Amino acid sequence: MKGNPLLESVNLAYRSAVSKLNLSPDLCAALGSPEREIAITIPVTMDDGRLEVFRGYRVQHSSLRGPYKGGLRYDACVELDEVRALAALMTWKCAVANIPYGGAKGGICCDPKSMSSRELEALTRNYTRMMGSMIGPQFDIPAPDVNTDERIMSWIADEKARGGTPWARASVTGKPIILGGSLGRREATGRGVASVALYALRKAGKNPADCTIAVQGFGKVGSWAAKFLHDAGCKIVAISDVSGAIMRDGGLDIPGIREYVANNRSHLLEGYESQGVRPITGDEILTLKVDALIPAALEAQITSANAGDIRAAAVVEGANGPTTFEADSILNEKGVTVVPDILANVGGVMVSYFEWVQNLQSLQWSFEDVMSRLEQSMERACDEVWAVSDNRGCSLRTAAYILAIKRVAEAAAIRYSVTA
Ligand code: NAD
Q1: pLDDT tens digits for 39-55?
Q2: What is the pTM of this model?
Q3: What's the CATH architecture for 186-339?
Q4: Which of 147, 242, 246 to mutate to test the pocket of ligand 1 (most atoms within 8 A of CB)?
Q5: Phi-psi category of 116—alpha, beta or left, where left has phi over 0 and alpha has psi -120 to 50?
């Protein structure tokens, strides 16, 4: 049976980078394996009186550089291998960002769209109680991910407060502003993706006003990335979501479309019409000839089956793991610049870190302060990854992994008293 493609890709990228470093095999094995894996059974009394039992996970991949940090995902497809892969990505992402966190990820196998608000609250509170001290402000700090939001984060924080956890609100990030959320967290990931895309275009000697962009996925990450790139003067020629894809050669009206989606009952692109806008297929959007393609929907969208057809000059990974390891090699051979997820979408965890720092000090930074810290941190992370790539003559993905693994290995060497 074939394993989880995301876990395979993450493991292969790790091994490929590690092979370029002079680390002991034992240390490589230790850094590549999760420190702890928790699987729980969560009983919930449903609205109709039935007892339903859910499977929940938290994989704590590394705490070498600080408390565990990573999102919590609610989805019918959640399974342990996927959570393992996403937890490892968080370790490398936090190390690329150089923020003092390790990596973790959680998930509950459920269909949140079919559950009432009361059922979701009971599920979230039961998960939090069963995780006990495994979640907390100095130990492991969840955040929103696919199908989880501010409301779910506030239930977790409230459950921690009821249990007597000191500084309970710092147990999660991505909270509503009134309950200790950070200004700028909502747009942070997309803003970071846009900054990285603009950095890549600049490196290629291109002017944003002459550039065309396609964005797959118009949710929390994709719609903000499209907005900031549109604001920077780029032409967003195509976008898509689960309901379909649209294109306009002269560029789409991104502010108008964001407003349409916000007010549309389904919060989807379906039904959007405007002069010059035509529908295309979800597959077509990936193979358009554009300056940058931003996959910001799901994992494993660019595979060995379609990588040969990609005509974008650059792929900027807004989503986690949108390109499989095989596809990545094909794109590298074709000369496509691939900016990896662990750099491109790092803005989310950066502002989560800012939120946690504000909570621990009972401060509220201004929106401008958050954005300027984010911009500076993104620029620094890009400079560092590009420098490793230039010095070693390797892809940006390998460079980002090398930078991250070296930082985690350095922490391990000191903490384990071994030679890295
Ligand atoms: P979201 O649920 O807000 O948005 C996902 C979007 O993808 C939606 O527009 C959905 O309609 C669309 N989509 C789903 N299936 C599709 C398909 N087959 N074709 C085209 N579009 C499709 O989720 P999000 O928070 O924007 O996350 C997107 C990705 O970014 C995920 O991989 C997530 O792990 C990653 N990510 C998110 C954050 C964050 O802060 N939200 C941070 C880092 C990484």
Answers
A1: 999 999 999 999 999 99
A2: 0.96
A3: 3-Layer(aba) Sandwich (3.40)
A4: 242
A5: beta
